[in-house]
From TrEMBL:
It comes from Microbacterium paludicola. This is 2,3-bisphosphoglycerate-dependent phosphoglycerate mutase. Belongs to the phosphoglycerate mutase family. BPG-dependent PGAM subfamily. It catalyses: (2R)-2-phosphoglycerate = (2R)-3-phosphoglycerate. One of its GO terms (molecular function) is phosphoglycerate mutase activity. PANTHER family: PHOSPHOGLYCERATE MUTASE (PTHR11931). Pathway: Carbohydrate degradation; glycolysis; pyruvate from D-glyceraldehyde 3-phosphate: step 3/5.
Amino acid sequence: MAHTLILLRHGQSEWNELNLFTGWVDVRLTELGRAEAQRGGELMKEQGVLPDIVHTSVLSRAIQTANIALDHADRLWIPVKRSWRLNERHYGALQGKDKAQTLAEFGEEKFMEWRRSFDVPPPVIDPADEYAQTDDPRYVGIDGEIPGTESLKIVIDRMLPYWEGEIVPDLKAGKTVIVVAHGNSLRGLVKHLEGISDDDIAALNIPTGIPLVYELDDDMKPTGASRYLDPEAAAAGAAAVASQGKK
Ligand SMILES: O=C(O)[C@@H](CO)OP(=O)(O)O
């Protein structure tokens, strides 16, 4: 039996537009981001790829994107599950920093190591920093501590229990699942699904607002290549993410 999984990165956020490192800071969608989410929903409806259940992070930009996309796919009524384990990678002390300024200050090598290396996290954020999540009520009771920084490796380690424990059972129950999350949490999931190496994952960027569809076998392995519902827009969007900072 084939299982259908849809991955959707949130539409443009206020801090994507401003070119700031975002991570766990809870910024909203821009008008363009809302339009991207709408288009994502329309693409699902037009192409008949319709989710039965939605999983999102606990960050507003993913929740807004899910609501808008599902509304435009006539699927606002499906069950919803949310988890901090689908959150964006915590960007540590870089949260709130301008990407272009960070590149100019630290140089390309360090900048890319922080953004795209597999296991080098950015410096830890001070818990008193205005962009730390200390005392944020949505994280009361999360297992362990609120992170002070995360590498992609750490993201994968905290995401996989949710993937195995909550998403895979929905897929195995025959549901078409949509996961609405973030650039780096989805990079982690794609790495896991496709067995991409620690080095090669650096080059993978996920565009905002375009559904990416996987057909999976019973072992949750892709049966073929994944497909974006708008491949041209996805290629342009991924290139734009790759060049962030260089403007
Ligand atoms: O700032 C962030 O949280 C992420 C996603 O917007 O950025 P990057 O693509 O640089 O990892």
